[in-house]
Amino acid sequence: MPTPTVLFYSPTPAAWAPKLRQTCAVQKLRLQLISDSHLGCTLAALLTEKSPPEGAVSPLPEPILVLCGLNNAQLDKLLPALRKLGAGPCLKAVLTPTNGSWTLSALYEELCKEREQFQRKAEQP
């Protein structure tokens, strides 16, 4: 079974990032930092390749976390810890068989669409 991993991308240093590293270590989760040069790689490639091929993709405007291979107990422990760190507004996703073939940039676009839908629903009476 692969090590549960948190993929983390941030276009600028996040104030809570050092605490994220510590939180992942305490919870025995691998933290993998994603650079701008790897935004064009699929999520599956980011997890399986030591050095994924670099692609020319524009930086994303906000941080994103992808939770990979965590069981329910690990999710239940990590999500409240992320809120405590101040990572609450950061976009988050769970790796699925469907989105594993997406690039981080494509996942970001999909998460933005979902966020817009939630905001529209919240605004409706």
How would you describe this protein?
40% of the residues lie in helices and 15% in strands. Helix 1 links the parallel strand 1 and strand 2. The chain has helices spanning 17-26, 43-48, 72-85, 104-123; strands spanning 5-9, 30-34, 64-68, 91-94. The chain has 125 residues and is an alpha/beta fold.
The strands making up the biggest β-sheet line up spatially as: 2-1-3-4
Largest sheet: 4 strands, mixed
**How many DSSP helices?**
4
Strand content: 15-25%
**Contiguous runs where pLDDT drops below 50 for at least 5 residues:** none
Oligomer state of the chains in this structure: single chain
Order of helices and strands: EHEHEHEH
Radius of gyration: 15 Å
Mean pLDDT: 89
Can you give keywords for this protein?
125 residues; 4-stranded mixed β-sheet; 40% helix; 15% strand; globular
Which helices and strands, and how do they pair?
Elements: E1 5-9, H1 17-26, E2 30-34, H2 43-48, E3 64-68, H3 72-85, E4 91-94, H4 104-123
Parallel strand pairs: 1-2, 3-4
Antiparallel strand pairs: 1-3
Helix pairs in contact: 1-3
Q: How would you sum up this structure in a few lines?
A:
With 125 residues, the chain is of the alpha/beta class.
